[in-house]
Amino acid sequence: MGTERSLCQYKPPVFPSDAQIKLNPFASTGLPILFSRPVISKSFGQSLYTAVLSPSPILVTFQLTNALPNCCGQSRATTSLQWHLVCGFILGALGRAFTILLMICDASHPTVRHSSLMCFVSSTQFLTLEHQNASPVAVAEKKYAEPSVIFDAPGMLGLTMCFSVVSMFPCVPARDAHMVRSHTVCYLSLSVSFCFLCFTAVPVNKRDIIFLLDGSFNVGNTNFPYVRDFVMNLVNSLDVGYDNIRVGLVQFSDTPETEFSLDTYRSKADLLARLRQLQLKGGSTLNTGSALDFVRSKHFTEAGGSRIHENVPQLLLLLAAGQSGDSYLQASNALARAGVLTFCVGASQANKAELEQIAFNPSLVYLMDDFNSLPALPQQLIQPLTTYVSGGVEEVPLAPTENKRDILFLLDGSANLVGQFPAVRDFLYKIIDELDVKPDGTRIAVAQYSDNVKIESRFSEHQNKGEILNIVKRMKIKTGKPLNMGYALDLAQRDIFVKSSGSRIEEGVPQFLVLLAAGRSTDRVDVPAQNLRQVGIIPFIFQAKNADAAELERIVPSPAFILSVESLPKIGELQPQIVNLLKTVQNGGPPQVPGEKKDVVFLIDGSEAVRSGFSLLKEFVQRVVESLDVGPDRVRVAVVQFSERARPEFYLNSYSDQQAVVSAIRRLTLLGGLSLNTGSALDFVMRNMLVESAGSRITEGVPQFLIVLSASRSRDDVRGPSVVLKRSGAVPFGIRIGHDDDTEMRTISYIPDFAVVIPTFQQLGSVQQVISEKVTLLSRAELDKITPVLTLSPTGVSSKRDVVFLIDGSQNTVQEFSYIRSLIERLVEDLDVGFDTTRVAVIQFSEDPRVEFLLNAYTSKDEVQTAVRRLRPKGGRQINVGSALDYVSKNIFRRPLGSRIEEGVPQFLVLVSSGRSDDEVEDSAVQIKQSGVAPFTVARNADPEELVKISLSPEYVFSVSTFRELPSLEQKLLTPITTLTSEQIQSLLTRTQYPPPVVENDAADIIFLIDSSDSVRQDGLAHIRDFIGSIVRKLNIGPNRVRIGVLQFSNDVFPEFYLKTHKSQAAVLDAIRRLRFRGGSPLNTGKALDFVAKNFFVKSAGSRIEDGVPQHLVLFLGGKSQDDVSRSSRVIGSAGIVSVGVGSRNVDRAELQTITNNDRLIFTVRDFRDLRNIESQVINSFGPSGVTPTPPGPFSPSTPVAKKADIVFLLDGSINFRRDDFREVLRFASGIVDTIYEGGDSIQVGLVQYNSDPTDEFFLKDFSTKEEIVDAINKVVYKGGREANTFVGLDHLRKNHFVPEAGSRIDQRIPQIAFVITGGSSVEDTEEATRALSQKGVKVFAVGVKNIDLGEVSKIASNSAIAFRVTNVQELSELSEQVLETLHDAMHETLCPGMTDVSRACHLDVILGFDGSQDQNVFVSQRGLESKVDAVLNRITQLQRISCTGSQEPTVRVAAVAYTPSGPVEGFDFSEFQPDLFEKFQSMRNQHPYLLTPDTLKVYQNKFRSSPAGSVKVVIHFTDGVDGSLAELQKASAELQEEGVNALIFVGLERVANYDNVMQLEFGRGFTYNRPLTVNLMDLDYELAEQLDSIAERACCGVPCKCSGQRGDRGLLGSVGPKGMPGEDGYRGYPGDEGGPGERGPPGVNGTQGFQGCPGQRGTKIFKKLLSFNFAKLIDSFTYLYVNSPLCLDGLNGEEVRYF
C-alpha cells in the first residue's frame, strides 16, 4: 500500500467572501465555524468576524470604526460612534482587568495558562442568522470533562455595549441596524455563554514523544554528550508531566534497547535526572527498520504508556548518525498509518534521502553538519513538536482490498514445536492484527493438531479482533507426538468450514486455510486435500523444520501456495507476504499479474574508480528510468551502490512516480571505496532488494530486472550469487566500463548476450536505448522461453566444509574484540553455512580454552550469526596457544561433536591471536596438522616463526599491526576456505617437515608438595621456591617431556597448578615466582598425600601415569605430621610413584622413611636456606638428564590388561517398541558385545526383558564365550505388554543378577554394569532403584528411544554422562561409537590401586555480593532485589546431583559480602541453606552505599582464602554498574581467577549502566551460558542454578560443557493462598513534597460598611449620560432572551431571528 501523509499546523484564519463559509483554524479538531451570508459590507463583516476572534478589544474598536463609514457615510456619525466605541472599550477593559486579577489569584490552576478566546472559538460552532422577523440566536456549545478556564466575559460585555450603541445611530440604514442589533444579541448571548462556561474544560497540550537515538559507534563516546544535551535541552523546553507531555527514550544500534517508557517518569525533574545518566549503548551496525518497528509495537501502545487511544498526538523523534543496515520503509509506513508523527535529525554519515522516507513529511527532516550544533537545535524543533499534528494518512490501494473472508489457522501443535511455539503464536497474533476482523468482514478460526485436533476458536465464537487476539495470546501448545495432518484437514472441512461453525461458505465468501506443518504426516493427506479443493477452500502452507515438501504439494493447488520457513524463530519475516496473499487472492489460482508490471534494480559501481564518470552513470540510469512507465502498479525502480559494501539508495517501494525516482537519482552521491565485492553486492540485492518488504513483487511472478554497472573486476567470486539470482527468477544485465574482459559480466548476465562492454563512460549513451528496449519489451512469457546460463563452481569442489575459529579472548583483545567478531560475521556471511554444507564452530582461549559453540550446534547461517554477535571476550592474562591447539585437536575435530573429518570433508582452523604464545606450540601444531586439519593464522604482533609452525603453509600466515586491519584479510581467508579440497590439503601437509619424535625416556611427571605451615615460615617458603625454580631450569619442560605440578599444604591443601596447566618452562617459572606463604597449623601430611594421589596423579589433572610415564613426588617438610601418613604412603608407593623427601632439622626422619620407602631418596638440611647444597642430589634422583629410573615394584602400566566386566542388559519389551523395533534393539545390544569383547577378555553378559514385570532371558554365569552370548541375544523373543515398569526391572537386576549366585564377580571388584534400553516412561519413578544399584557398586547406563526425554533417561542412569537418547531405533547405530567409548572407560575405571571406587564429593562456596547507586539505598531503589535474592538463595543451595557425585548432591555454602567506602560488610559467613540466611541478608540494608571497585573483588579474594582446598569458588554479584576504573577492575578480575576462583558472574540490576563493560569482567561461565543476566529475568534463579551446575561439572567432574534442556512454559497461576499474618510496622517514611495551594474557600461573611469616601472630581458629560444607562435591566433582558431562545439553529431549515 502507498501512503499520502498530510501535516496540519495552526494558521490565522482568513475572512471568506463566500455566501456560507467553513473555517477550520485547528486541523486537529476538525470542528467548523459557520457564518450566514453577510448582509452588510464585506469590510464591516470582516471587522465583526475579527472582533469575535480577536482577544484584544482595542483592535476590535479600531476595526469596527474603520468599517462603519462604508455603511454610514457621515463623518459626524463616525466620530460620535468612535466615541461610543471608546467608551465601550473602556468598560470592557475594566472588566478584562478584573478577569486578569482573578487569573493572577488562581494562577496555580494548570488550565488558566491556556485561556483565550481563540480556545473557545476553535472548538465551538456558533451561528449568527439574520432574516426579517427572526429572533436572535447565538449557539456556543461544547462538552468538556474537566474544570477549565475563566473566559474574557467582561471584555465581551463591553464590546456588546458598543454594538448596542451603534444600533441606535440614525446613520445606519434600517436593515443594517437590524443586523447590528442581531449581532449585538448574538454577541451578548456569547458573552453570557462565556460566563456560564467559566468552569468548563479546555484540554491542555497533551503529547506522547519518543526519542529514538542512534546508540552505535557512528555517534561514539566523544559525541554522545552532545546528543544527551540535545535531548535534555528539548525536554527542558517541554511542559513535561504525566497529564501533559510524556516522554520515552530508546537507543538502538544492531538491536533496540528501552531506556525508559512514556509512563516511567511523572515529573520533569526525574526525567532530566535520568537523562544525565544516559550512556552510549554501542554497536557496529544500525538497524533503523527494526528499531522503528520496535517503538511502534512496544512504546506507541497502552502497555508502553501511550495515550494513542485517547487521541493524544503521538510523536517520534529519530536521531541517526549513519545509514540503516536493514529495510526501514515498511516500519516507517506502519508508524505513519498508526498516526505517529515522525521527526528525523541527521548527523555525521546520515543519509538525507533515507531520513526523508522515514519522516512523516520531508519537511520534518533536520540535518546537522556536526554534533556540536545539536544542543542548539531544540530552538527550531520546539514549535513544530508542540503544534504539529498528523493530518492522517490516506491509503492508496495497490492491490484489491480485503473484503469478506473466512480464514482458519491450523497450527502444528505437536512436539515438533516444543520450545518454539511462542514464536508461532506471536506470528499468528501479528497476522490477525493486520486483518479487518469483524462479523461482516474477515472471520477467524484457530485450531491446533497433532494426534487429534484442538479447536481454539470457531468462526462463530470470537468475531471481533480484540476477542480473537486475546484467545491467541493465551494459547498454549497442545503437544503430542504423532502428526495426523490428514485427519486434521478432514475435520477442518467437516466441522469448521460449515455454516454451524460460523463459516459463510454457502454465501460464496472465500474460504482460506492457513496450515503450519513442522513434520511429516503420520497419516495420508491425499483424500482430505482433494475434498478441501472440491468445496473451494484455498490452502496456504508454512513448511517448517522436517515437513515433507512433496507431501505438502499434494495439498495445495500450486507450489506457489507453500511458504518455506528457514527456522521457526524467523517465521515473522513471512508476515507481510501471507497478509498480502490473504487480502488479495480471490480464487484457487496464484495471484494474476498484469503484463506491464516490472521491478527494475540498478546496481551501480560506487568505488573511487568511477568518480570521474559518476555523473555519466547517473545520467544513464536517469535516461533508462525516463523511458519506463514508472508507477506503483506498473514499473518500480530501486538503486543500490556498492564497492567493498553495498548501500541501498532507495527501494522498489520508496517512490511511486517517475519524477520522484528521477529526483532521487539526481541526489545520489558517490559511495567511495577502493575495490569491488560484486559477488557480495549481488547477494545483498537478492536478500534485501528482491524481497516483498522492499517492494519486490517477485512472489507475484512480476519480472525482476537487475542492471549491473561496474568499472572494475570483482575482488570476490560472482558465480555463486549470480546462479542464485538467476534461479530465483531475476534477470541480470551486466555492463562493464573500461575493460575488454567480459567474462565477469557474461557470468553475471542472464544469458551472455545480455552482457555489454564499453571502453569509456561516454559510450553509456549508446547502450541506454538497448537496455531500455529490452527491459520494456521482455515480458514474462518471453522470459519463460529463455533458459538462463548458469556458470557453476569448478567441478570437484564441494560446498561441505568444517570451519573452526580459535580466537584469542584474553584481556589483550578486549579493546579490539569487536573487529575479531566482525571478521567472523563477514566470513560466515560469505560461506554457504548449513548442516549439510559448511559447519562453523567458535572456541575462545586465553589461559585455557572455552567452547562458544560446536560444529553441530547450529544448522543455519542466521543461528550462527546470532551466536557470533553474542560473543564477548572471556578475559585472562596469558595466551596459551599451544594448549588451545591441543584442546581443539583432541576435542573439537571429532565426529561426536559435529566434525566430518572421517567423511573426508575439508577441516579448517582459523587461529586469531594477539601475540606470542605463553606456552609451547610446536608439538600441538604438529598434532593438529597430522590429524588432517588445515590451520590458518591471523596474529597481531606475533612471532612469525611461531605462526609458520602452526600454519598449513607460510602463505596462510597473516600478520596485522592492529585488528582494525582485519577487514582487508576477509577475501584472503575466504578464498582458501572455499576452494581448497581435502586432497590439496593433504598434499600440502605431506610436504610439511615435522621435528623428530620425542624420546620416550625424556618424559616425566614431577609434583612438588610444599609444607607451608607455620613451622616453615615465610622466609623458608622463599628458599623452597627458589630451589624449585633452580631445578626447573635444568629440566626439559614440555607437554611431551617433563610436566610440573605444585601444591602447598598445612592443615589443609592448597593446589597451585596441575601437571596440565603449564606447557613451557617460562610459564612454570612464572607460576613458581607467584607462590605465596599460606600458613596454618597443625601439619596434616597424610591428608596432603591423599589429596595428591586422588587429584594430581590422575589423567584429568595431566598425569600420564596410564601411559607409563615415570611419576615423581618431591615432598618438602619442616616438621612432624599430626595425622597418619602410612596409609597414603602405601597407596602412592603401590601406584609406582617415586617419592623424594626433603626435610629441615625439625623433620621426623622415620616419617620420611615411611613416605619414601627408600633411605637414598631422603635429603635433610639444617635450614631451608641450605637447599642449594642438595640440588644436584635431588636432580640425580630423577636419573641422568632428567630421565627417571624405573620405579621399584611390580607396576608396569604399559602392559596390556585384559578387560573384565559383568554386564546385564535390561531391555524394554513392552509396546513402547513394536516387534520390528525390538529386533533393532537386540541387534544394537549384540553389536556392543561383539565390539567390546576381544580375545583374552573376561566379560560376562546377562539379559532381562521387562514390561510390567521382568523376565530373565539368561544370567551372567550362563555363557562364557562371545559367540554364545551374541547367539543368545539374537534368540530373545519379543515379550510385548501394555506398560513398562523400569523401576521393577532395575530392582530385579539388583536382587537377582548382581549377586554371586547369578555369576556376578562383584566381590572380586570386577566392574558391574547395568545397560538399560527403554522406549518410554516408567510407570514408577526409577531414581530410588538406580541409587540402590549405584550404592551396590553397579554403574547404570541408559539409552532412551522415542517417547522419553533425556531428563528422564538421566534419572535412570548413574550420571548424565552415561545417559543417551535417540528419536528412533534406526539412530541406535549412530550412537554405538559414543556408547562404546564410555563403556570402555567404565570397564577400566579405577581411582588408585587398593582404594574403593566411590563417588567424588563436590563442594561449592558461593559469595553473593552486590553494589548500588551512591544516590540512594540499593534496597530502596531496586525494589525487586530482595525477592530475587531470596529465590536465588533457595535455588542455588539445592543443586541436583552431577555426573561424578553418584547419589549425593553437591554441597553449596553461601556467604553474603559487599564493599562500602568504609570497608567490607558481611551479612553472613559461608553456610549451607538455612531459613534465616535471607533475614541476615536483609540486615545489610542499613549500610550505604555499596560499590563495585577493584577493592570489592579483593575482598572476595580474601574471603575465599578461608575456603577449604578443592572447593569450587564462585562469585555472583548484583550490580548497577562499575564505580571504579574498568582497567583496574579487569586486572582485579584476572587476579581473582589466578587465585583459583572458578567463576565470576554478574547480574545487572535495573537501569544498570554500561553493562557490556561489566560483562568483560566475567569469567568461568559455562558453555552457551553467556547471555547477559539481569534482575528482571523471570527465571533468574533457574539461570544461576544452571550456571552453577555447569561450573560444578567442569570443576568437579572434568566435564568441559554441559547443556541443559529448555525449560517448559510457565504453568498456570495457582489458587490464591490464605491471607497472611499482618506484617510488622514499616519504616518511617520520608517527608513528602510540599503540596500546592488548595482550592479557593467559600466567600466570607460580608463585612460592615466602611466610612463614606470623599467626593470625586466631576466627570465629563458623556460619561454621566452613559453611566445613567440601566445596565442591570439590559443584562436581565438579554439573559432572558438567551435562556428562552432556541439554541443551535443553523438557518438552513427556515429558522428566523426575531428583532426587538
Automatic annotation (TrEMBL):
UniProt subcellular location: Secreted, Extracellular space, Extracellular matrix
Alphabetically ordered keywords of this record: Cell adhesion, Collagen, Extracellular matrix, Membrane, Repeat, Secreted, Signal, Transmembrane, Transmembrane helix
Region (Disordered), start-end ranges: 1614-1651
Transmembrane segments: 83-104, 153-172, 184-204
Recorded GO CC terms: collagen trimer; extracellular space
SMART domains listed in its UniProt record: VWA
BP term (GO), one: cell adhesion
Name of the protein in its database record: Collagen type VI alpha 3 chain
Organism name: Vombatus ursinus
